[in-house]
Amino acid sequence: MPKVTIAQNILAANDTIAEDIQQMLRAHNVRTLNIMSSPGAGKTTLLERTLLRLRGGIAVGVIEGDIETTADAERIEAAGAEAVQINTRGACHLEAHMIRDALTQMDTSRMRLLFIENIGNLVCPSSWNLGEDLRIVLTSTTEGDDKPAKYPQMFAASQVMIINKLDLLPYVDYDLAKVKRQALAINPHLRIFELSCRSGEGLDIWCDWLLAFVQQ
Fold first, then answer.
1. Superkingdom of the source (predicted)?
2. Of 136, 111, 179, 121, the residue nearest 47 (C-alpha)
3. Which helix (H) or strand (E) is 192 found in, with range?
């Protein structure tokens, strides 16, 4: 029983910090998206392709979460965005205090859109509020079509679902209709995007939505 109390206290403290982050970002007119997925689903590649399409339109910042290395932040900076790397040294999710510390290294006065790329994990990140406006769950055709059924909390906690690697559909055993049906049964309000970072299919629709989201 004491362990439950401790866990509740930790989450409550995290939520307080997250609320402060959200208020600060809104005061600077920054919209924030928390992108979550399993490892290898394509979060960083999606951000690279997105940044290339948005370049010159709006100022974008990215907070990169990884267990180790700065490889993803380096890729994001090469694509033209300000990036801060968070290495958790083993923790399976980002927490609000990490985002607060990362933001002290960023110029939010000119930023309009902030992406938080969470640790590759379909379990833990869904429980931690980071001060984001929306949560995005990214899944891919190479992972199998049972992810919504196996990890329902992640899909219930998200507002957007992206299905990536559509170009590989002819080569994998993946039922696209089944995945969407399962996800919508868990969360009927999910906004679903289907795309391929390799072929570019669906990326324009995704980026048009982002631009509209920033203007809201």
1. Bacteria
2. 136
3. strand 191-194
H/E run at residue 35: strand 31-37
Provide the 3-class DSSP secondary structure of residue 96: helix
Q: Which domain holds residue 80?
A: 2-215
| Distance in angstroms (rounded) separating the CA atoms of residues 63 and 65 | 7
Per-residue pLDDT tens for 159-184?
A: 999 999 999 999 999 999 999 999 99
Tokens encoding 60 = 């974008």
- Neighbouring C-beta atoms of residue 153, cutoff 10 Å: 12
DSSP at 3: H
**Domain count of the chain?**
1
Instruction: Name the amino acid, one letter, at 111.
Output: M
Instruction: Work out whether strand 60-66 and strand 160-164 pair parallel, antiparallel, or are unpaired.
Output: unpaired
Strands 191-194, 160-164: pairing kind: parallel
Going through 38-176 in order, the beta strands assigned E by DSSP cover 60-66, 82-87, 113-117, 134-140, 160-164
